[in-house]
Structure formats: structure tokens, C-alpha cells
């Protein structure tokens, strides 16, 4: 079986060498990669060209078209029997391709490997980031099998047959997030399970390395979650209440902070929290970060339109 890795990339000139070096060490020989550069803002094409000895093809968009367009172009150009989405900030183990292939030797399914986030040594990572990453993985593996489509992300695979049946990623997801969760849901709707494969946990050089960046992503993710719920209204168990509903002190605080949170204020408040984190007890700092991140997600869901001018 031949594997195709589809690698969407924007501004990836510093990330792509780590990924391509890792791919050069793969134990499985029959693979190719399609790197889709979504507007070449940092000469990424020249970086990829340095790896001409690898079975790597490049598609370069003249300007930014978004991750969904990049994914769809890459999958459309693929030649493999097993199609692997591999984001450009991963560092796969030598058996990465081999294990994705092996996961498709039985019944048809979608396969997900979770991220093992590598974070810069920052106060954010110390008080919140590392614990949040470990908690995320624990919760993912504890999720009932029928709900694991929620973890479809940047390290996943399916057969060419499944791709043809499910169709392309939905172009309505133009901004950050949830194009992948949407695709996982559609795989299950097509009758295939989504499987979490622990042996495919992969090092991920996370982009959200501060409270500010994490809160901004939470806001945009909340907006994308609203779009997902709008598209699939009546078809899928709700992705979660737009606001925490019980009246615990924490949920009251989250809802109050969300009322006055915009994308810009999530950024500026996050910067302020990052500044004071080294001076706070770790438990207090952790609570401050969590409060802003959770409130930002609620705020994004509550303000799904018109925020682009605020970005």
C-alpha cells in the first residue's frame, strides 16, 4: 500500500525542515508527501526544494486561500491508498507512516494520533500548558468510541476510498479551527468509526505558547464551533453549551468575563496575565489562564459574526 502525506503549510519555512528530516528516516518505504504552501510568505518553496531527494511534491498557492483549500488541493493531488494529514509543525517518529498504514489493514476507519505538545519554557507552559496537554490526552482516551470523531485533527488518516466517499473538507470553515472536527463527524456519518491510536502520538511544536496566543485561538475556535453547530443543527449531539449552565462560582465568573471579551481584549488581557505570571503563586496563575481561555471560547461562540474587524 502506498501512503500520501498531505502537509498544509503557511509561513512554515522554520518548521518544515524538522518535519522533512523526520520523514527522511521513515521505516516504510512506499510513501510520498504533498506540501501545499498557502501563499509563500517566507520562501517555504525553496526550503522544500532542498529535500529533492525525498518523494515530495509541492503545490504553491499564489496567495492565502486558507487551510481547507490547502487540504483539499493536497488530497486531490494524492496518489496513495492511505491518505495521511500531517501538519507542518509535527516531528513524526520513524514508524509514523508504517503505523498509519497498519491501522488500515483491517476494517475501514478513520485513524487519529494525538499530539504530544512541545512548549517553549514559559510561565504559561509551567503553570497551565503542560497540565492542559496531559489532561486533554487523558480525556480523549476516556471519551466513548462514538464521540472520538471530535479529535480529528492534524495527525490523522483514512483510505482513498473513504476520502472519495466523504468528500472534501468543508470550505465554509475559512478561519481558524473545526474544519477537522467537522470532517471527523462526517466520517462517522458515512458509517466509519474514528479510532484513537496511542502508538501514533506525535511530537507537536505548539503555536500557542502564551496566555495571549492561547486565548486568541480559543476565541476563534468558539466562532468556528458556532459554525459547526449551525451546519449540523439537528444532526449531531450539540458540541456543548455555548455558556456553562450550572451556577458554580467558576461558571459565573467565566460567563461574566466572556461578556466583556473580544478578540482584541483576549490578546491584551492575555499579555497582562503573561506579564504577571512569574510573580504569582502557580495555582493562582493557572486559574487566571484557565479563566481567560474558557471565557474567550464562550465569547467567540457568542460573537460568531463581525469579529473579523477586531482580529
Task: Report on the architecture of this protein.
The chain is built from eleven helices and ten strands. With 311 residues, it is of the alpha/beta class. The protein folds into two domains: 3-205, Spore Coat Polysaccharide Biosynthesis Protein SpsA, Chain A (Alpha-Beta Complex), CATH 3.90.550.10; 211-310, no CATH class. It has a seven-stranded mixed beta sheet. The chain has a three-stranded mixed beta sheet with strand order 5-10-7. The protein is globular, with a radius of gyration of 20 Å.
* Rg, nearest Å: 20 Å
The biggest beta sheet, please? 7 strands, mixed
Strand content: 15-25%
- Remind me, CATH topology of the largest domain? Spore Coat Polysaccharide Biosynthesis Protein SpsA, Chain A
Protein structure class? alpha/beta
Secondary structure: helix percent:
40-55%
Query: What's the name of the CATH homologous superfamily of the largest domain?
Result: Spore Coat Polysaccharide Biosynthesis Protein SpsA, Chain A
CATH class of the largest domain: Alpha Beta
Q: Write out the strand line-up for the largest beta sheet, numbering strands in chain order.
A: 3-2-1-4-8-6-9
Give the end-to-end Cα distance, rounded to a whole number of Å: 44 Å
The strand count comes to 10
Helix-strand pattern: EHEHEHEEHEEHEHHEEHHHH
| Residue runs with pLDDT of under 50 for 5 or more positions | none
Tally the helices.
Answer: 11
- Please, how many domains? 2
Report the average pLDDT across residues: 93
CATH architectural label of the largest domain: Alpha-Beta Complex
Label the overall shape. Answer: globular
Amino acid at each position: 500500500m502506498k501512503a500520501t502525506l498531505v502537509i498544509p503549510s503557511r509561513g512554515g519555512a522554520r518548521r518544515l525542515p524538522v518535519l522533512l528530516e523526520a520523514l527522511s528516516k521513515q521505516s516504510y518505504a512506499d510513501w510520498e508527501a504533498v506540501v501545499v504552501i498557502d501563499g509563500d510568505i517566507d520562501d517555504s518553496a525553496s526550503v522544500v526544494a532542498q529535500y529533492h531527494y525525498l518523494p515530495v511534491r509541492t503545490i504553491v498557492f499564489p496567495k492565502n486561500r486558507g487551510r481547507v483549500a490547502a487540504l483539499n488541493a493536497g488530497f486531490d493531488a494524492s496518489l496513495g491508498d492511505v491518505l495521511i494529514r500531517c501538519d507542518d509543525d509535527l516531528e513524526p517518529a520513524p514508524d509514523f507512516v508504517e503505523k498509519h498504514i497498519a491501522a488500515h489493514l483491517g476494517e475501514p476507519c478513520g485513524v487519529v494520533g494525538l499530539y504530544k505538545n512541545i512548549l517553549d519554557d514559559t510561565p504559561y507552559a509551567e503553570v497551565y500548558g503542560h497540565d492542559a496537554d496531559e489532561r486533554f490526552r487523558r480525556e480523549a482516551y476516556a471519551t466513548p468510541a462514538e464521540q472520538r470523531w471530535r479529535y480529528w485533527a492534524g495527525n490523522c488518516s483514512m483510505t482513498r476510498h473513504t476520502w472519495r466517499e466523504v468528500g472534501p473538507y468543508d470550505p465554509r470553515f475559512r478561519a481558524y479551527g473545526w474544519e477537522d472536527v467537522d470532517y471527523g463527524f462526517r466520517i462517522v456519518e458515512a458509517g466509519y468509526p474514528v479510532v484513537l491510536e496511542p502508538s501514533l502520538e506525535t511530537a507537536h511544536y505548539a503555536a500557542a505558547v502564551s496566555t495571549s496566543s492561547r486565548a486568541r485561538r480559543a476565541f476563534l475556535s468558539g466562532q468556528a464551533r458556532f459554525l459547526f453547530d449551525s451546519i449540523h443543527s439537528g444532526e449531531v449531539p450539540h458540541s456543548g453549551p455555548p455558556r456553562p449552565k450550572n451556577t458554580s462560582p467558576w461558571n459565573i465568573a467565566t460567563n461574566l468575563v466572556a461578556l466583556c471579551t473580544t478578540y482584541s481584549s483576549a490578546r491584551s488581557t492575555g499579555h497582562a496575565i503573561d506579564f504577571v505570571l512569574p510573580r504569582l503563586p502557580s495555582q493562582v496563575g493557572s486559574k487566571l489562564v484557565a479563566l481567560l481561555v474558557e471565557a474567550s471560547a464562550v465569547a467567540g461562540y457568542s460573537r460568531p459574526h463581525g469579529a473579523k474587524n477586531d482580529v
